[in-house]
Amino acid sequence: MTNPLQDLSFFQDPYPTYAELRGAAPVQKVPTGSDGHYSCVVTGYAEAREAFADPRLSKDTGRFFAGRPPGRNLHPAVSRSMLATDPPQHTRVRKAVAPAFTAGPVARLRPYITDVVDELLSDWEPGGQADLVASLAVPLPVTVICELLGVPGGDRSMVAQWSNDLFAAGRPDRIDSASHSLAGYMAELVVSKRSTPDGRLLHDLLVRSGEGQVTEAEVVSLAVLLLVAGHETTTDFIGNALLALIQHPDALARLREAPELIPTALDELLRFDSPVSIATFRHSTEALTLGGTDIPAGVPVLIAPGAANRDPAAFARPDRLDLAREATSHLAFGHGIHRCLGAPLARAEGEIALRALLTRFPAIRLAVPGEELRWRQTRLMRGLEALPVLL
């Protein structure tokens, strides 16, 4: 049996594969090589929600790989980030950074986000052509998260490239190298923030480090995690959302005529084409049964929000974009203690970007046939390599 999650067709359009897997069973074993090892892929909505909250599914990758020959050279700031820990360590570290992403701080960032969008769109001309990914979806979130962290303007494109390289599917050497470059840069930036406080998030985390809430190594790891998670997913969210609207003219017209509906439409757009196709690594710490499938201890478990959000048992006619749908229960941001910390910021960026696009360029449409669009070759993220549009 081959792994259906490794086929090229899966990267272009994962939803037929997800439907086939889910139709056979909401939790299925798929091979991870020719040696008999396998992972369990969770495609059902109820099962995914249950798995996200099950403490028997650990995110502690160090525990899983303990005693195994190292096959990679990822920097510890990446391989041992907050995402790869369990309580109580996860609880302690998340508590230190969570206040920066609550409603109040995000609301205070909205004028800055609006200014960034305005600047990025200032060179776009009605009737012209642009690549929405390269010209808006990539620079917007990386600019915002770098501003939040205090990354100097001249370094931001370099930092963004390292972040992008961390998702270079099939290139472990490139991924490992990027992890060391990014972590090394952030370690130097943390040192500079200690000597020249600027009131940004990294400095605030250093204050908490001095109070014993987090270690300095954890501050560096958080900086890397926030940068990567803070812009890669939002980049894909913006690109996927606009493409979905362009390919559904009635929905596009509805939001163009009533842009005040955009905030509530975001949930359906996130559900319809989730930027996180498969959530980050988990493994079973003891034997359990999920969705009727027995999972022994020590097995990787891959929860697929992209599949769960298209489960007809949870969402009627799930392959249809319906902006009137009640979709707040989607799993695009995950669920449970590891639910995406930056969800409020991602929503603010998505809302402001879509509002500006639909207001300024009401005739926006694809510049190439939809079948010519190419998607990133990574099963974790669901995002376009480019989105050429006519304005």
Task: Break the fold down into its secondary structure elements and pairings.
Elements: H1 8-12, H2 15-24, E1 27-31, E2 38-42, H3 45-53, E3 57-58, H4 61-65, H5 76-79, H6 89-97, H7 103-121, E4 129-131, H8 132-137, H9 139-149, H10 156-165, H11 172-195, H12 201-210, H13 216-246, H14 249-257, H15 262-272, E5 282-284, E6 288-290, E7 293-295, E8 300-303, H16 305-308, H17 343-360, E9 365-366, E10 388-390
Parallel strand pairs: 2-8
Antiparallel strand pairs: 1-2, 3-5, 4-10, 5-8, 6-7, 9-10
Q: What's a concise summary of this model?
A:
With 391 residues, the protein is of the alpha+beta class.
What does this structure look like?
- The protein has 391 residues and is of the alpha+beta class.
- Helices cover 50% and strands 8% of the residues.
- The chain is built from 17 helices and ten strands.
- It has helices at 8-12, 15-24, 45-53, 61-65, 76-79, 89-97, 103-121, 132-137, 139-149, 156-165, 172-195, 201-210, 216-246, 249-257, 262-272, 305-308, 343-360; strands at 27-31, 38-42, 57-58, 129-131, 282-284, 288-290, 293-295, 300-303, 365-366, 388-390.
- The strands form three sheets. It has a five-stranded mixed β-sheet, with helices on both faces. It has a three-stranded antiparallel β-sheet with strand order 4-10-9. A two-stranded antiparallel ribbon has the order 6-7.
- Strand 6 and strand 7 form a beta hairpin.
- Helix 7 packs across helix 9 (139-149), helix 10 (156-165) runs antiparallel to helix 11 and helix 13 packs across helix 15.
- The longest helix has 31 residues, at 216-246.
- The radius of gyration is 21 Å and the shape is globular.
